[in-house]
Amino acid sequence: MNRTFNITHKGKLLLEDGSEFPGFVFGLPQSTSGEVVFNTGMVGYPETLTDPSYKGQILVFTFPLIGNYGIPADSIIEKLPENFESHKIQIQGLIVSENSEEFNHWNAAQSLSSWLEKYNVPGLCGIDTRKLTKLIREHGTMLGKIIVDNEPTEFYDPDIDHLISKVTVQKPEILGKGKKRVLLIDCGCKKSIIENLITRKVEVFRVPYNYNISREDYDGVVLSNGPGNPVVYKEIVKTAKQLIAKEAPILGICMGHQIISLAAGAKTYKLKYGHRSQNQPVKEASSNKCYITSQNHSFAVNTKRLPKGWSVWFENLNDGSNEGIRHNKLPFRSVQFHPEAAPGPVDTEFIFDEFIKDLK
Question: Could you say which of 3.30.1180.10, 2.40.128.50, 3.40.50.300, 3.40.50.880 is the CATH number of the domain covering 164-359?
Answer without folding.
Answer: 3.40.50.880
